[in-house]
Amino acid sequence: MRVLVCGGAGYIGSNMTVMLATQGYEPVVYDNLSRGHRAAIRNVEFVLGDLADYDLLVETLKKYRIEAVMHFAAFIEVGESVRKPLEYYRNNLCCTQNLLSAMEAEGVRKFVFSSTAAVYGIPASVPIPEDSPTEPINPYGQTKLAVEKMCHHQSRAGKLAYASLRYFNACGAGDNATLGEDHCPESHLIPLVIQAAMGKRRDVSIYGTNYQTPDGTCIRDYAHVSDLCRAHLLALDKLDEQPELIYNLGNEKGYSVREVIETVKKVSGKDFRVVEADRRAGDPPTLTADAKRAKGELNWKTEWPELEGIVSTAWQWHTSHPDGYQD
User: Is the overall model pTM greater than 0.85, yes or no?
Assistant: First the structure.
């Protein structure tokens, strides 16, 4: 199967591209390299393009006889989405509508969408199942939910078979720790703590130490990027049976901010300064996934259930790429 990987030069997209290639698929990467890295793309076909370019999308779908599309090309920073909402609506929603229109024009029906647990907002209970109310509290979550609704209506019109995969916290480095996380600026906890262990940051901040959790710090669900990518392959196959799929992807096990910090210290053998700061607005005490649906319907299994293993792959990548990808 020939699969167009939109955002295939990014963190999850690059891992997905390699997994597709090793599993016998024919991936084609489509990326404008605004936030991705050319060095993360291996020996596959690459199209330098923006999702706003309808004509290029149609040309690419036709030229490579694409049979399915995976979409990882969204902007992902919650804080940035609050500061720049129109940029997020343009890129995450309008450009995805453009992509779906090109797919409809070329008769490409299969679509696997990288969604997020941010669609739930602040949940009433945890772990969070897929039928929890979707009440996002920021433009990032709003745009992802809007895409899900757009896919739903397109599917009901008989023009799309889609899977919406709601990640919790993607982390680690895939393909034997050769494909890691390189965002600028970085906002994800594990790479930030690793940067402190490497001496690239002066300290790490803990935002809130008085939450109703065992150690007072926020608890989050971390899923290794390779486990997420395997779920995409399983969902793609499942689209032959069902035209609409929604799955949470998480380990169903939470780790606190302090546990992440202590795990990085253990894996790295390094100590570093930790600063306690005030809570951030909108941070729930605990966010963990109920991923039983994906495990049951897709037979999805996480091969990286423990934080230490996840952090070890991330540490290996960051120490072998101290300045990130060199494009």
Answer: yes
